[in-house]
C-alpha cells in the first residue's frame, strides 16, 4: 500500500489513542459526571451530532452541482451499498436480537465507510487527481444518503415500539415519528441544504466560511471520540457480531459494487475502481455518533471502527491486486 495511505492510517490510530488516553485518565470527568448518568464521550458526541455534523451536511448539500453529477457511477455505488445496508438491517431485525435501534446501528456500521480520513488519501495516492475528483463526488452524497435512510428506519422502529406500549395512541405515535424524522440533526440540515440548492443562490461568504470552520471539527472530534468511547465503554463481550459486520463491510460490500459495475452497468475502469475501493473502506466514525445518538451498541461500534481500520491495511492490498488482475488499474 502507498506510504501516504499507511501514514494516514497511523495518524488515525494515534488520534484514537489520544482519545483513549484522555478517557482512561478521566481528564474530562467520570462516566456519571454531574450525576446525570452521562459521560464526557456522550457530551462530545452530542456536540458533534447537534453542531458540527449539521453544519457539514448543510454546506455539502447546498453546494452540490446536481446537473453535472456522474449518475451511472453514483448508481454503481449507491445501489448495491443501500440495498446491502437494507438487507443487513432486514436480517438483523428479523432475528430480533438486541435493542430496538440495534438493527439500524449495526447496519450503518456495516455500510458507512471512512470516506474522508482514509478514503481521500487512498484515492489521491492510487488514482490520482482524476480518481480523487470521482471519489469526492460520491462523498458529497454519501452521508446524505446513508444517514437519511437509516434515520428514517430507526425512527420507525422506535415508533413501532412506542405504539406497542400504547396501542391507542397510533396517531400521536405517527406524528411523533414524522417530527423526529424531519426535526433531526441529520435530516433537517439536508432538507434545508436541498431547498437552498434549489434556489440557485450561492452561500454568502461569511456563512460559507462559518459552516466550513464548523465542519472541519468533525474529523478530529470524531477520531478522539472513538478512543474515549473505547475507554468508557470497553470492548464488547462477544466478538462474533463485530467480525461479521467487518466481513460484510470489508469484503462483501465491495464485491457487490464490483459485480454490479463490471457485469451489469459496464462502468469505465477508473470510476469502477474508485467506487470499489470506496466500498472497501473501514467503518467511519459517523457510525459511532449514530450509535451514541440512540444509546445502542456503542462498545460494538467502537470496536468495529478501531479493528476495521487496522484490518483495512491488509484487505485494501487484496482489493487493489484484484482490480489490477481485472485490468481496472
Give a short summary of the structure.
The protein has 329 residues and is an all-alpha fold. The chain has helices at residues 3-24, 40-63, 71-95, 102-109, 119-165, 170-182, 187-199, 205-215, 218-233, 240-263, 269-279, 286-293, 298-325.
Terminal CA distance: 14 Å
Helix content: over 70%
Task: Give the domain tally.
Answer: 1
Classified by CATH, the class is Mainly Alpha
Mean pLDDT over all positions: 86
The main pleated sheet reads as:
none
Inertia-based shape: globular
Radius of gyration: 20 Å
Total number of beta strands: 0
Number of helices: 13
Low-confidence stretches: none
Global structural class = mainly alpha
CATH topology: Na+/H+ antiporter like fold
Order of helices and strands: HHHHHHHHHHHHH
Secondary-structure arrangement, i.e. CATH architecture: Up-down Bundle
Strand content: under 5%
Short key terms for the protein model shown above:
single chain, globular, Na+/H+ antiporter like fold, mainly alpha, 329 residues
Descriptive report:
The chain contains 13 helices and no strands. It is globular. The two termini are 14 Å apart. Helix content is 76%, strand content 0%. The protein is mainly α. 46% of the residues are buried.
Amino acid at each position: 500500500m502507498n506510504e501516504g495511505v499507511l501514514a494516514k492510517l497511523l495518524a488515525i490510530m494515534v488520534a484514537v489513542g489520544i482519545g483513549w488516553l484522555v478517557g482512561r485518565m478521566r481528564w474530562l470527568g467520570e462516566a456519571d459526571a454531574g450525576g446525570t448518568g452521562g459521560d464526557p464521550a456522550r457530551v462530545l458526541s452530542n456536540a458533534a451530532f447537534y453542531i458540527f455534523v449539521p453544519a457539514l451536511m448543510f454546506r455539502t448539500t447546498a453546494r452540490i452541482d446536481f446537473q453535472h453529477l456522474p449518475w451511472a457511477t453514483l448508481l454503481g455505488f449507491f445501489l448495491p451499498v443501500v440495498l446491502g445496508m437494507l438487507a443487513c438491517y432486514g436480517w438483523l431485525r428479523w432475528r430480533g436480537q438486541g435493542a430496538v435501534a440495534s438493527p439500524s446501528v449495526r447496519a450503518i456500521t456495516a455500510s458507512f465507510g471512512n470516506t474522508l480520513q482514509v478514503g481521500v488519501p487512498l484515492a489521491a495516492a492510487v488514482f490520482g487527481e482524476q480518481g480523487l475528483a470521482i471519489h469526492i463526488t460520491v462523498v458529497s452524497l454519501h452521508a446524505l444518503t446513508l444517514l437519511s435512510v437509516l434515520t428514517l428506519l430507526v425512527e420507525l422502529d422506535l415508533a413501532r415500539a412506542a405504539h406497542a406500549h400504547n396501542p391507542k395512541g397510533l396517531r400521536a405515535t405517527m406524528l411523533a415519528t414524522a417530527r423526529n424524522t424531519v426535526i433531526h440533526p441529520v435530516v433537517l440540515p439536508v432538507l434545508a441544504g436541498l431547498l437552498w440548492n434549489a434556489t440557485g443562490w450561492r452561500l454568502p461568504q461569511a456563512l460559507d466560511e462559518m459552516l466550513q470552520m464548523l465542519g472541519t471539527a468533525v474529523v478530529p472530534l470524531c477520531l478522539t471520540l472513538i478512543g474515549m468511547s473505547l475507554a468508557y465503554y470497553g470492548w464488547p463481550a462477544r466478538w462474533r457480531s463485530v467480525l461479521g459486520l467487518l466481513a460484510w463491510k470489508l469484503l462483501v460490500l465491495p464485491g457487490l459494487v464490483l459485480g454490479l459495475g463490471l457485469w451489469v452497468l459496464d462502468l469505465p475502469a477508473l470510476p469502477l475502481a474508485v467506487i470499489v475501493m470506496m466500498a472497501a473502506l473501514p467503518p467511519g466514525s459517523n457510525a459511532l455518533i449514530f450509535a451514541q445518538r440512540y444509546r445502542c451498541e456503542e462498545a460494538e461500534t467502537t470496536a468495529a471502527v478501531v479493528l476495521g481500520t487496522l484490518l483495512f491495511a491488509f484487505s485494501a492490498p487484496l482489493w487493489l491486486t484484484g482490480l489490477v488482475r481485472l485490468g481496472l488499474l
